[in-house]
Amino acid sequence: MKEDKSKIMLFIDDNVQPIAELLTPVQFELDTRKLTDGEHILKLVSKSPTGREGIRKIKFIVRNGPAIAVEGLSENGEVDGVIPLMINAYDKGNQNKFIIEGSETPQSVPNWLWILLIVFFAWAVFYLITNFSL
Predict the structure, then answer these.
(1) CA 116 to CA 109: how far, in whole Å?
(2) Each residue's pLDDT tens digit, 93-115
(3) Cβ-count burial 44-60 (b if 16+ within 10 Å, e if not)
(4) Cis ω before 84 (30° cut-off from 0)
(5) For the segment 65-75, what is each residue's pLDDT rounded down to a tens digit?
């Protein structure tokens, strides 16, 4: 006796043409390299052998392009005047060979570290003055 299987169609965003029509159960590899960076929706439409339909939508974000790092301006931040920005963009590049140049985003020294250094040096000066005065 032949068992009827459900059919599933996969759609990306609002495309009317499915990227795949498959019989279930199935394993499928979604190649995101063909998609633009940003938000997308994978829509799965299944049809049972009796003709009933089921729909599931899954939101996902693609980040295949170069990563962009910005220091000096945060999301929804309030600013005024001239804002110094440090911007870096880097790609994964060749996965078989690691290139260090451009792979890390340079960052300025955080304020808490400057404060910690000032407190330490102030304590050191205080210690030297109080323990070695003649």
Answers:
(1) 12
(2) 555 555 555 555 566 778 888 89
(3) ebeeeeeeeeeeeeeee
(4) no
(5) 887 888 888 88
